Amino acid sequence: ILKSVILIGGPSKGTRFRPLSLDMPKPLFPIAGLPVIQYHVEACSKVENLVEILIIGSYPASDLSQFIQEMTSTYNITVRYLQEFTPLGTAGGLYHFRDQIRSGGPTYFFVMNGDVCADFSLQEIVEYHKEKQALLTAMATEATKQQSLNYGCMVLDMNGGVAHYVEKPSTFVSTLINCGIYLASLDIFQTMTDVFNAGQNQENLMQFNGNGKDPAHISLEQDILTRLAGTGRLFALPVLRWWSQVKTAGSAIHANCHYLTLFKTQHPNHLTSAADGPCQIIGDVYIHPSATVHSTTVLGPNVSIGPNAVIAAGVRIKESIILANAHIQAHSIILHSIVGKSSYVGEWARIEGTPCDPNPDKPFVKMENLPLFNANGKLNPSITILGTSVRLAAEKIVLNSIVLPHKELTRNFKNEIIL
Ligand code: GDD
Ligand code: GTP
Q: Does position 363 have pLDDT exceeding 80, yes or no?
């Protein structure tokens, strides 16, 4: 049998996703109408003999309980949340909960970073892992030289084994990057035990923990992958399908577009059809069944409308995510933006962001997950985000701005963070 672990971090992570992650854990943010990690769960549910999914993170258990119930009933698979008392790193949590992972005797288990989006091909990884008799197999993809520096970089040997692994190198190593999706054999816990014991000895010698991290902190990348490189037991499977991280709100808009495209083949019923939708639909659009959309609205391409949202007459929305309970009043326009839960957008208002889509003509480019500010202290042009319960007055324009929750906007804003 197989199991899967999804690493979701905790409230101290996902800072680039604020203000959207202020009142909802980032792993539960809806992309194309479904929580980020629901795509992980769904991919796992399709793997033969995969019996249990363990979600490891440091969010309070109550944040996840409803999601877990929904996943269990939707996919008919056991899903459990294991809460870390403190962030233990990408392998520290695996090690801490090793008995839970090993119970029931799985042969292999997946480890999935919760903050990636992809056309997952997990079954392919299982076949490859078996064929190579690997200890650990990492899904890999290509990036540009420049972008590779933000990821784990790998150099392969003739046999597909990882000869070198460098996590976020400061100078160029390889364009083959780690996607944060792995399959491990149970012996990986032996490697972790070695690392853990080495760390404890170090600890005793030094009497204090120099890096400020918990002594049980283990990084899968720095402590395990780097160590396994060159041993012939770490393999990488390069894949060409779509893959991307979700770090910034801009990357959520990008992922929204890709998941909507995937729906065409994988979930046609999630897409609103142009022929019998509630309004004019252009390209791929998701509308939650409980949303109310006026017949003179024009939506798309790449728009997701959340539960109980209300979209009034003459509204135009393109390349955007509208979250639950938002009210968009008549004749407003929303482009390249995310409108937070329970926000209110007045009539004839305009909300516009600047897309940060990778250039589709360059091979292998990944989404740039730019920080909020550039080196000159200026806000990088980005999509516009309205936090939860923001109210925008009628006929006002908000351009390339980030608005924190509960703000009342009564004038125009451009390139601002509204605190
Ligand atoms: N449970 C738990 N505990 N999860 C954690 C912790 C922790 O202490 N720290 C990070 N995570 C989760 C995050 O929520 C995320 O899903 C994943 O582990 C990796 O997060 P980061 O540590 O922020 O790494 P990264 O995303 O910058 O880089 C990793 O992913 C890239 C691909 O997206 C690395 O694995 C890179 O090598 C890789 O290229
Ligand atoms: P391209 O697709 O790049 O050619 O854009 P466009 O010239 O169609 O205009 P834009 O992307 O700015 O707007 C998309 C749609 O929204 C168009 O159909 C416009 O007619 C419509 N639109 C533009 N501004 C407004 C507005 O202020 N209010 C409303 N309700 N619709 C608008």
A: no
Measured between alpha carbons, how far is 251 from 244 in angstroms, rounded to an integer?
Answer: 8
The number of the ligand 2 atom at minimal distance from the alpha carbon of 318 is: 14
pLDDT at residue 355 tops 90: no
pLDDT, one tens digit per residue, over 310-320 is 999 999 999 99
ipTM: 0.81
Instruction: Return d(Cα 235, Cα 138) in angstroms, integer.
Output: 6
Nearest atom (ligand 1) to Cα of 88: 8
Q: For residue 377, what pLDDT is reported?
A: 75
**Mean pLDDT of the region 192-202:** 81
Element (H, E) at 31: strand 30-31
Distance between CA 253 and CA 160 in Å, rounded? Answer: 34
CA 415 to chain centre: 25
Nearest one of 367, 347, 366, 350 to 401, comparing CA atoms? 350
DSSP characters for 294-359? -TT-EE-SSEEE-TT-EE-TT-EEESEEE-TT-EE-TT-EEESEEE-TT-EE-TT-EEE-------
Ligand 2 contact via 333 beta carbon (within 6 Å)? yes
Residue 314 Cβ < 6 Å to ligand 2? yes
Pocket test for ligand 2, best of 280, 333, 336 (most atoms within 8 A of CB): 333
Distance 316 CA to ligand 2 centre (A): 7
